[in-house]
Design brief:
Blueprint (H helix, E strand, L loop, with lengths): L7 H10 L4 H9 L5 E3 H7 L5 H13 L3 E5 L7 E5 L1 H20 L6
Antiparallel strand pairs: 1-3, 2-3
InterPro entries: HTH_HxlR, WH-like_DNA-bd_sf, WH_DNA-bd_sf
Protein name: Winged helix-turn-helix transcriptional regulator
Pfam families: HxlR
Length: about 110
């Protein structure tokens, strides 16, 4: 491997996490009971994201294999999004980044 090339594994990770909202959605679901939440719950709790953007981001995370979409057969229909095993593992890898950010977030703002 050429030393100037980016590691393909990091490139893959940033292909996911480098997009707005993806990391936050994975983190959000990781702190929910059973790693899952309803669309309306996410929209309420993450009020800065539009419904359209949330829908697109959830679909993107499904395509990456990080989420599953569950649709109830009852009335009313309830749609739940849940982290997959792959998504749960990614959420665990975010903890050291969160610790790093907590340590250095305010640096330079003093």
């Amino acid at each position: 491997m050429n030393p100037l090339q980016v590691c393909p594994h990091l490139q893959y990770a940033f292909q996911i996490l480098g997009k707005k909202w993806n990391g936050m959605l994975v983190h959000y679901l990781s702190i929910q009971p059973n790693y899952s939440a309803h669309f309306s719950q996410m929209k309420r709790d993450l009020s800065e994201i539009t419904a359209r953007a949330l829908s697109m981001k959830l679909q993107e995370l499904i395509e990456f294999g990080l989420l599953e979409k569950h649709v109830s057969s009852g009335t009313p229909i309830v749609i739940t999004y849940c982290l997959t095993e792959k998504g749960i593992e990614l959420s665990h890898s975010l903890a050291p980044i969160q610790q790093w950010a907590a340590k250095y977030n305010n640096e330079g703002m003093e």
